[in-house]
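Chapter summary example.
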Amino acid sequence: MRKWKEVTKLEKLKILQRFLCILFGSLLLAFGTRIFLVKLNIISGGLSGVAIVIQRIIGPTPEVTDIIVTAATWVLWVVGLIFGGKAFAFRTLLASIFYPIFYTMFTRIPAFEFLGDSFVQAMENGETIGVLMLGGIFGGVFVGCGVALAFLGDGSSGGIDIIIYLIEKHTKIRHSVLSFIIDGTIIILGLIVPARTGGTWQDDFIRNLILVLEGIISCFVTAVTIEFVYGGNKTSFQVDVISDEWEKISAFAQDKLGRGATIIHAQGGFKGEERVVLRIVFPKYQYRKLRDYIALVDSKAFVTFTQTNAVYGEGFTKNEHKSFVIKKKEKKDE
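The structure predicted for these 334 residues follows.
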């Protein structure tokens, strides 16, 4: 293991960048959860959903959602350390520290509490559905951005993700399926345990049903936001071009886009002609430039674009090995 003095400035900058991603991600996650979802009683899964259900059982006062979220986050982190290993626990450490702190800050500091109270007052003035819709959508956006930033920082948001990881590790059930099952169970609990409004049970049930539907919308918005922020950042394209002008297209890719090209010599299956297939891999933001140039120099070119989820190598993400994986392999070899 290298000493800190041996780490290059570029590597230190990357470490700082990852730290800031997780820190800011935890802030956005806490903001979206507390100010929008919890304040409006919208259950969209996660630890916040569990906290809302417990708060309903206890009653509106005293406020304990921050205590529940903090305790559950740290307990789950210890569970992850014991059963998931040090490497996984390290990935969730920063979020497990900062998320409860930020959540408590948005709960206990009056200046922040005012933001959530303004939505509640709007609901009391009769604008119930509109306010809930806005709360669910924007809560989902902030939560999605927070989780995506934590992923971009090579970390994790912790909490329920730790349970999902451990179950996935031992059962091989897909992450998306487990996430759907666990969040769905929490949302159903939100329907079973009513929010007390002082009205009839019919009124409580209808209100709860509306909150559950808003929670489902919020879950969907969160998933879309994560895919847009995190998935979109990782997305690249591979293009295969069959054209008589392949040399011009290759030169454009190298000179204008800074992308290398692979020349593949192929034979047509119909006439048996010798052709050149030009293959170029490039990031998402260069898609339009390359597509338009190919159409300009050869409108009859045969072009196929393929979306890739990850590309490693020069000009893209560095394919770095994880030291703990190497050590594990070495132990097996011994």
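To summarize the output: The chain has two domains: 4-233, 235-308.
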